[in-house]
Each structure stands twice: as C-alpha cells, then as structure tokens.
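Worked example 2:
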Amino acid sequence: MSQPTLTPDQLANLRAHVVYTADGKLADSSTPDPQDLDAYRTTAEDVKAIVYTHLDAFVRAQQEKNPQRGPVPVLIWAHGGLTTKEQGMLTAHRQAGWWLKNGVYPIHAVWESGFWSTLEDVIGGKQAGQRGFTDVTDIAVEAAARLLGGRKFWDDMKVDAAAASLGPLDGHGPGGGFVLAAALRDYLQKNPKSIALHAAGHSAGSIYHSAFVPLLFDGDDAVEKVETVTFLAPAVRVDTFEQKLLPLARRGGIEDLSIFTMDKDHEKRDNTGGVYRKSLLWLVSRSFEVEKEAKILGLEEHLSKAGPTMAYLRQKGERLVLGPVADGKRTSSKATSHGDFDNDADTMTSLARRVVGTRATGDDDDIAQLFGAESRDAFPTPPAEPTAPRGAAPRKRALCIGIDKYVRRPLSGCVADAQTWEDTFRSLGFEIEPTLRDAEATREAILRAMLALVTTSSAGDVVAIQFAGHGTSVPDLNGDEVDSFGTNDEALCPIDVFDGQLVLDDDLAVVWDAIPDGVSVSLFFDSCHSGTANRKLTDADKAAMKIPVGTTARKLELEPAERERFRATRSASLDDPVRKAAKDEVIDAESGRAVEDAPRAVREVLFSACQPDQVALETGGHGVFTTNATKILLANPAATNREFYAAVRDAMAQLWEQKPSFEPGVGLAEVPVLSPHDPDATTPTAPSGLVTVLDRVTDTGVRTAAIVAILRATADLLEAGGAD
C-alpha cells in the first residue's frame, strides 16, 4: 500500500513540531509555507520558534484549561534510521495530533540519512542483472549486507545522528539537536516547572538520543532531570548506551529509562525484507557494525549479559518489557516484528501512559485517546532455508574472472588466462559459472558471484574460483582509524578500481566464512598481492626481483587521489569538519569498536601467483602462474594440494624469480587437489601423484579475518513498509 503525500497545509502544521536535518545539519533558509517535501527546510530560527512560540502557546493553553495540572509533558521523538524524508515526516504527521490530544507536545527529530531501499537492493540483489540471495541462507544475506553497502550506510547514519548534536564548528552552524537542547534548557530556566521532558526513539532513534539527551544536561542552564527515556527495539550498541545514557539514569538525571523489545525467540522468528530470517537487529549486529556479533541493546541475548544495564533495569519492573506481552497498561506490547513497535497500539499506548504520567486505574480512558495503528505493507514470509535434494550428486563448479581493459595500465593476458582456466576446469568435469571478463568484473559482480557460488553449494561439492588481473595494496581501515591510514591491506583490482572499488582480503574472508560445512573451495589467483601477508611491496623488493624484458607485472600502484577515492567509498568523508568531529564522537562512545573478530580457521585452499614481496608476471599472452599451474593440474589431477603447489613452484623456478604461495586450510594440505573432503577427517589420505622436495608449509593456517570497515551508516532501513 503506497503512503499518501503530505499536503501543503499538513507540511505547514508540521513546522511547529519537526526539526528536520540532512546529514545532521540545519538549513540556512526556509519557507513558512512549503508546497512540497522538497521545499521543507528547518533553520536554527525555526527550531527556536518551535520552543519559544509553538510550545509556549501550547503550555499556556493547557495551563488556562487546567491551572492545577502541573508541568506539560514534552516528548522528543526520534525515528529509526535509513528513513527517507517523506517517511519521517509522515510519522510525525501520524503521531502529532494523537500526542496533542493526550496533552503532550511532540517534537519530532526527522533526520534523513538514506533510503531503506538501498539495503533492500543489497540483500535482495535487485540491481538489474544481479542475482539475488532469496534462495540462500541467512549467512549469505549477512555476508552480502556486510560487503555490498549495509556497513557504509549504517556508519553514515551514526555520523548523521552525532552531527545533529554538535555545536558550531569551523564556520558551520550548530546541529538541529544542539539548537533544540539549548532552547529547551533556556525555556525551563525562564519558565521553571512549566514542562516535563521525555524522549523516545524507535530502532536507531536510540542512537540519535544517545547523542541528544546528554545535551540537556550541559552548561550552567542544565535541566534538573528528564522524566522518561523510552527506547523501542533499540539499535544502539550496548557500549554506547552504557557510556552516554546509563550514567545519567543511575544518578537520577533520567528518572526512568526503559526498553521495549522482543524476546529472543521472536527476534529469531522475525524477518527482514522477506529475505533475512531474523530481525533487523541481528543484521545490525552481524553485518553493519565494525566487529561481527557487536552487542546491540535491543537484542535480549545481548541485553541480558550487559551487567550494568540489567542491574539498573531490574530495579524497577516497568523498565524492561520483553514482548509480545499483554501485562498491564504501561507494560504491554504486541509487536512481533522489528518494524511493528512504533505502529503497535499496545506499545504506543503504554508509552503514552508513561509520558502522561497516569497509573493503571482499571479504566480504559486514563489517557484521552488510545493509539490507532495504521496498516502498512507487510513483508512476505521468508522462504524456508534451502536444502539439497536427497541423494543429489555432489557438484563441481568453477568461476573464472579475467580483466585486461583497465583504464590505466591495461594488461593483455588475463582474459586469456580466464579462458585457459575455464577449459582446464571443464576438462576436469566442472560446471562453469558465467565468466566475468573486463567490464563485467566490477567489485559488486565479483563478490556477488563468489558469494552465490559458495553459499549455494552443499556438503560434498567442490568449488574452484580463479582470478587474473591487477593486485594492489591499500590503506588498512580496520578499526576505523580516521587520522591515519595505518597499515596496508591486500586487494584484487576489479574493473572499477579507479572508482575506489577494490576487493580486499578482508572482503574475501567474509565470503570464505560463509562456506558451508563439507564444501571444498580452492582458489587460484594470478595477480600481485594475492597472498595473505599484509605488507606493501617496497622499492628494495622490486629491485631485488629481476623482471625480464618482455614481461608485464600484474601490480597496480594506486595514485594518491585513487587511494582517497577508495577510502571515501568505505568511510565518512574527512574533508567536512562537522562529519569528522561527529565520527570522532561515534568512535569515542564505542569502547568495543576496536575489538577484532577472533582468528578464523581457514577452510579454503589458496594458490597465489607470487610471494608478498614479489610481482606476478605475464608474458606471451598469459600469466606465468596460469601457464604452469594449468599444465601441471591436467597432468597430475591426483596430486595432493601440497604436491601440486610444489610442482608449480619448481616449474616456475626454472625460468622465473616468481615463487607462488600456498595457504591450505586446516588439514587440507594432503587432500587431493580439487576434490571433496570430509570435514570431520583428521588425517586425510590421498594418492601420491608427485615426488618433489617440499617447502615447509603450515597446514594449520589461521588467518585473522578482521572484517573491515566496508559499508557505513544508517539504521531502521527495512521496517515494515519502509516507514517508521
């Protein structure tokens, strides 16, 4: 069901209730009678008018109506993130009249940070020509969301929330939240006990309020207290919450801080976008935050282990409501999906009773009007987890990728290599996935193809993935270091490398982590920096390696502007001082942010063209590694992985100062190359196909998969119907 468009009269009425910011910033000018949403803007003066004119008029009218009524409740509402301007404004329109009828003055923070459909496209694969993930597991969805956009949007959303609460900075005016908090503090100083402050937020609205609410306690005019802060399915990190808000609640600055959320069983029975078989908060935890499995306040499994927070919540029975539950007028919620809370009559009515301040009396009219939910488009029931047909024969499938036509430093043998590998795999009985060549081989296409191939495989299947093209090293953004690049990450160069698009080793680790049990995955990468060491090739390294005349190195040195472009695709811009300061605020509040994921057990086998201090060479229309590896593979298909590697190494050593590298997963060095393996076997055996002197190669390879800062910013994206 499509939502109505707001009329000019409705937009004009909302000027008394809405603080609208884009990227956390207020506008320089506005119009009192906007004719459409595009024309709706909020300035600092508009924010002050909300408090000093519109709120003041409401307070005086309430006092005249009932001189004995006490302070007038004021509710500052923050919607979820990744909400369009229209969705945020419609939420304000839907709620404002209801709050006013209940004697509450609502002020809505509408903070536009992106479109929920962006993530829907990411996890649903809706871009033209792209395969979706609706037929695969949650692990595939989590990996796709992490790799293909969700992380960047989420981080940008958090930066937007923090920016809204920043004061003036380097010629930039204050954020909308900063101006609102200052005006409310000043109003209370001039009109003591005239209003009682309350804050509520749905999903990422809790992130907004983690920056906004502390502002009410700033300065000489700090408020005495905020009566209630209520979060519905909060998406804020536990560490941020415990640093920014919990201390205020403990000392009584926040009289009552409460959480409404689903119990763990309903979180896991929820669905996001009809694709992901858990609630959005699980996707936030596993895909959007810096560290995988980040602790999110609204997830019962995480909340129950947050000692300081739970100690506070247990002090009063009303402070934690795990739904769905019908248990009193102030503690009921029938929400069974993440997007339900701000549209659930029981939840919103319970919230209203807390704000209005009435206690349960047994009457149904203890507030003036119950909340009336409006229908929304529901997401379809997600498909069942796919299962392989009984008795299905194991499959052998291969993906081949070759790129020659780079805009700068083109190559001449990579597409030919991809064809050679395709022919080789086919002769060994493999089904060939559509080959990605030149313009087809974008970062997104490569990662989607790899992820689809891996996650649609079943135990017993054998997967081979080949890449030929440039390799490079780039600034390591792990831990979101914003003042320096830190160390370097290795990367494969897709065709859109000069647009800042790279396939990092950390990106690949996300894909390999999604390998189902019992699936054999072998990788053949003919490019520079295709091994696992994390260091840049130095001038001394290049000088030490003699590169013969007539050969070309498959290594791309990115220029400074290209490196900056790469960083811009994965993190908030540092050119804007407001966003940089907001980013610092976000990082400072996330004490667990720097914690890396535990080392991952390597389950794939990687054959790389060269060592980390060498370059991969091509000559005669092919890569040196590809020429030797494919010949040896066809001649010795029964060799173990270790034997195959040694044979390729020895063959290349006769003519080239290029030594391939070998990284076997746990227990896989002695398994036959390109063969199924038993994941439970501890001492795999294989026929000996080659006799050669072997280098010492560990077969307990463990690679740290610090799943990188890949996708930044934003919050409530896939709520039912896309609206808060």
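The chain has a mean pLDDT of 82. The chain has two domains: 9-112+149-365, 396-703.
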